[in-house]
Amino acid sequence: MKTLRFTPLVILLVFSIALGGGIVTNTNHSAAYVRTLNRNATTEVDAAYFNPAGITKLCNGLHLSFSNQSIFQTKEINNNYQYLNESTFTGDVKALLFPNFYSVYKMEKLAFAAGFQPIGGGGSANFEKGLPSFELPVSDLVPGLAAQGVTEYDLDVTFEGSSIYFGGQAGVAYKINDMLSVSVGGRYVSALNNYKGHLKDISINPGTWMTASTFFTGAAAQYTVGGDGATAMAAVYQDSADYFTSLGVGYEAYAAAYQAGADQYLAGAAEAYASADAMTAKAVETGDKEVDAAQKGSGFTPVFGLNISPMEGLNIGIRYEHITKLELENDTKKDDTGLYPDKAKTNADMPAMFAVGVSYMVLPQLRAEVDLNYYMNTGVDWDGKEEDVEDDYEVGIALEYTVSEKLRASFGYLYSKSGALEDYQSDLSYSLNSNTIGFGAAYSVMPNLEVNLGVLNCFYQEGKKDDQHNLGGSGLMVDFAEKYNKTAIGFAIGINYKF
Are 76 and 482 within 8 A, CB to CB? Predict the structure, then answer.
C-alpha cells in the first residue's frame, strides 16, 4: 500500500492572498489601489511603492499614508477519484489585517521614500477536511482490503496554515527636469510560513469498525504466529533429514524428502515474516500523524523607477523589481511524516517584475489610467516547480472622476493571466486566470487629510487538471480529474496626510 502521507505545503503559494499580483507577489498595496486596481502611474503618496520615481511630483514636505485591507477568499477543489468519501474540499483563506504604510519627504528635486507592506502571502488558510492529496492514499484501503469485506473508511484530518512575507523598503528619487525623474531603492523581505495539522483515527469496517492500524497490527500478529509455526515444522523436518543422512547409503531418498520439506517450511516462514513486516509497516503508515512546523527566510529586492511627463495631463510610470533570492529554512517542532526535517531548506524566490502605467487627463474632471504588470516566473528557483510555469501578466484600466472639490469617485478593471501550466496545478498549489473589478472614492476631509475607501471583487476562471494515482502503491495507475475554483472579495480604508 502506498505510504499514507499527510503532506503539508512547502511554500506560500496556497496562501498567497494577492487580489492583484503574480503567483507569489502581492500588488494590492493601498486603499487607492483597491478602488482603482491601476496605480503604476500615480504621483500620490502610494507612488512610494507603485511609481517610486513619481514621488518627485509631490509638493515639498512630509507625506504619510496608512491603509488596511480585509480580504476573504474561498478555495474549492473537486476531485472525482472513485474511492474518495466525498469529492469537494473547501478551504477558507482570510486576512483581516493587511496593512500598508508609506512615507515620503520631498524637498525640491529630491524625494525620499519608505514603505511597509505584505509583499507576499498575508493570509491564513483553514481546510477543515484536509485536501484530496491527504485522503487519496487512505481511500485506497477500500479496494485494497475488499477481500476482507472493507467497503468504507473514515478519518479525522485538518490543516491550518498561514503565510506572511513582510516587505520593508526605502528609496530615493531625483527630478532631472520637468519631464523626467529617476529612482533607486530596495526592499528587505522577511518570510514566515506556519503549518499545523493532523491526520488521525483512520478507520475501516471489516465486519465491524476499527482503526486501520489495529487491523494491520492484528494481521501482523497472525502472520507472525504462522511464521513461528512454519519455523517449528521446518526444524522437525530438518532433524529428520539430518537423521536419515546419518544412516548413510540407502537412506538418501528419505533424507532428500525431509530436507525438501524443511526448505519448504522455511520458505513459508520467510514469506509469513515478510507479510508480518509489511502489515506492521502499514500499521505505522495508518497511525496518527501530526505536523507543527514553520519556515523562515529573508531576501533583498533592488527596485528601479522612471517617471516621464511628456506633456501636461500625461504621466508615465515605469518600475522594475529585480528577482528576490529567497531560501526558507524549516523550524520543526513536530513532524510525524518526515517531510519537514528540521533545518532543511527550500528555495522560494520571488520573480522579477516589470510594471508600467500611463495616466491621462481625458477631461478636466476625468482621469484614465492603463497598466501592465509582467512577472518573470521562469527565472526563479522553486526547486524544480519553475519548470511548470511560464511568465504571467496583468493588464487593467481605471477611470477616476472628480465629483467635487473634495470628492473623487473611481472604477477599475484588471485582467490577470496566470503563468501556471497544467502540471503546476494541484490541490496544494494552484493559480487561476481572473477578472477583477474595484470601485470606491477619495474624500478630502481637510486640505491636508484625505480618506480612501475601496471595494473589489475577484472572479476566477476554473482550472482543471487530468492526473493519475498509483492505486495502493501497486503500480496500477488510475485516472482522475481535479477542478480548481476560488472566490475573493476585499475591503479597504486608508488615510493620506501631508505636513
Answer: no
Q: Contact 54/42 with Cβ under 8 angstroms?
A: yes
Provide the residue range defining the domain that includes 39: 12-135+158-200+304-498
* Nearest CA among 422, 479, 465, 400 for reference residue 33: 400
pTM attached to this predicted model: 0.87
Q: Are 305 and 257 in contact (CB under 8 A)?
A: no
Reported as a single tens digit per residue, the pLDDT across 426-458 is 988 889 999 999 999 999 999 999 999 999 999
In a domain, 207, yes or no: no
| Residue found by looking up cell 493559480 in the block | 431
**Residue 231 to residue 224: CA distance in whole angstroms:** 10
Total domains in the chain come to 1
